């Protein structure tokens, strides 16, 4: 018996080693991303087995250890059926694939705080364009994901060349072993998931708003398996069909919202017939506006704009995985981005009530400007669909100073104006800046600030935004020189946060106490400047607003009818509080701020009162939370179901 057991173990040693190695790597991934893998580490096993003898399995479900083991077993059980060298080679291939997937996820997480999905991988042809950012995000310690391969590859090659046959168990024995591995794997997966569903329902798995929430319940392998399943199901097997009751809910919501957008304000139509110029600034946070480092103003030009514009000091980015493209989508289409991937890539062929198309239909010449490749984020397809008459990309600009990735924002803005002054009036210009892009390695000749006391990415970031501030200042002066300043609605805002959680320095520059709420808000806040002809309405506004509110506000100023438009944003010129919802479940209305839990459970979220800046009972945020959630779900239906096209046909 002992001899048979020893033989059995030797025959399956490769599978056991594979199981251990991948488990260790998943634990390492969780450690690097600061996510929970094993509750209390070693104490987990001691407490879990104590509970097991009492008939309580719940302790095993804490963290991701059990479900990760189950996922590995389900993923690889079939390799046990393979005999000899095929068994070893197959396990090695799986090891390589899983290791590279974990590595890719980790690099992506460091910038986006999210995991790769199939829809993001569909944009993989763009990774070469952002190689500098990718390289900067890789750490030496990442080699640990591949170090085992240095041993395993030579062993497998040796066995293959020497034609060694290690596993000579009978097919029946291998089949029983593989079947047992599959059953155990399924039990290890189904136990934690069913326990979660029994407590909280299955909405997390049927309505994925945020990938990390799924990861916290399924583990890394489980997340990717579910993501692949959902993608195949949505795009090939069961393309999403919006139920009739969902359509009716969306119609009802928009009917009420369209009436709300028509509420009068003193600003209604005051800029009728004027030009519109939007400048979207790359990775531009708000915490450095009107602040100094070592006695120097970080953004002196934007600070001066405070005196002649409408400045919203509580303005938030609402982007998700699509980042810059999400910001563009929010501003021009006034719908929320998707929880996974970019609308620009996944649904560029759908119909939208887009700002450039609306303005084009009202006599505007419209143009988008971006000093990079036109194919990036699928812009050349999306821009054409949403009504831009022109799109000027990298090849359309004359060579100039290189700052950051490519043509600096200073010559970029000036060359854009060169083109805009040739347009028929009125015009709509949409400028997507680029210089202050991660990793913020702006060239030495443009590093003008004394950043002593700061280092690394944060120091580079301060140099980059200082350069961009100069570019905006020169742009404003050019508009005044051309006689356009008082003939144009001018807007400048950030597209998303700068992507690095260096809270201590960030809060220090902002001169705020280091608290979780301050850190959360500052990372999400971006500047928003809006200049109306003759400085009308200038001043600082404290109400909460977000990127989704930009298009409806512009149309209100231009006096263009919004009563039949499917835009989810609010008119920022109406002073009543409204929800600013974030894709990952948090929201604010200027009175409270709700921070969603990683598990995406309302009860585990945190509600803050913004007057006292103190945590309050979570139920104080309940009604607004479900309002925000409804908006996100309706927006998803409008996009994936192409409901705008359908609703307009029915009108």
From TrEMBL:
Protein name according to UniProt: Phosphoglycerol transferase MdoB-like AlkP superfamily enzyme
Family per record: Belongs to the LTA synthase family.
UniProt subcellular location: Cell membrane
PANTHER family cross-referenced by the UniProt entry: LIPOTEICHOIC ACID SYNTHASE (PTHR47371), PHOSPHOGLYCEROL TRANSFERASE I (PTHR47371:SF3)
Principal place of residence: membrane
Pathway in which this enzyme or protein is active: Cell wall biogenesis; lipoteichoic acid biosynthesis
Record key words, sorted: Cell membrane, Membrane, Transmembrane, Transmembrane helix
Listed InterPro entries: Alkaline_phosphatase_core_sf (IPR017850), LtaS-like (IPR012160), OpgB/LTA_synthase_biosynth (IPR050448), Sulfatase_N (IPR000917)
Species name: Bacillus chungangensis
Signal sequence interval, chain numbering: none
